[in-house]
Amino acid sequence: MAAAHVPRIAGQSADYLRKQLDDYADGTRSNPIMANFAKALSAQQRAKFAARYAAMSAPYTAQAKPLNAVHLARGHQLAYQGDESKRVQACNGCHGPDGVGVPHAAPYLAGQSAEFLASALKAFQDGTRKNDAGELMRSVAGRLDDADIAAVTGYFASVDLSTH
Q: Are 97 and 103 in contact (CB under 8 A)?
């Protein structure tokens, strides 16, 4: 589903998934398909779906187009160190080592498709996604250029979440 910019939700924390469903239901996060689905559910049903998907695991799917060594190194740098010159903090500071996620705080990035991750960053950049606490993702995404987005999303797409 990478081409459709659909995330892997199996194994995300139940808190994160419930928040996203609640945000779709109340219009805080915009997506016509997800909004129609989430609005039809009660808060209890949304919590039940979130718990069900959180309990699942998703097999690693290698990315279709591997990064070259330069882009992979830049993606790794952004993940682990950030870029002080752009005032971009390391992704792993919030999303955990290798982007494995932090329950109750941040979703996993490891193993997500580069296409999905890039579309999410672009949505934060252009303000069409604004359900991030304290506008943190909008701030970070706004400082990345297209090459950085390609590098960091390609890096996280190459990380096998199942080994963590």
A: no
Q: Give this prediction's pTM.
A: 0.90
pLDDT digits (tens, 9 = 90+) for 84-114: 999 999 999 999 999 999 988 899 999 999 9
Three-class secondary structure assignment of the chain: CHHHCCCCCCCCCHHHHHHHHHHHHHCCCCCHHHHHHHHCCCHHHHHHHHHHHHCCCCCCCCCCCCCCHHHHHHHHHHHHCCEHHHCECCCHHHHCHHHCCECCCECCCCCCCHHHHHHHHHHHHHCCCCCCHHHHHHHHHCCCCHHHHHHHHHHHHHCCHHHC
Cα separation, 134 vs 129, in Å, equals 13
Q: Determine contact, residues 138/61, Cβ cutoff 8 Å.
A: no
Closest to 15 measured CA to CA, from 42, 51, 45:
51
User: Over the stretch 46-63, which tens digit does the pLDDT of each residue have?
Assistant: 999 999 999 998 776 766
Place of tokens 């910019």: 5
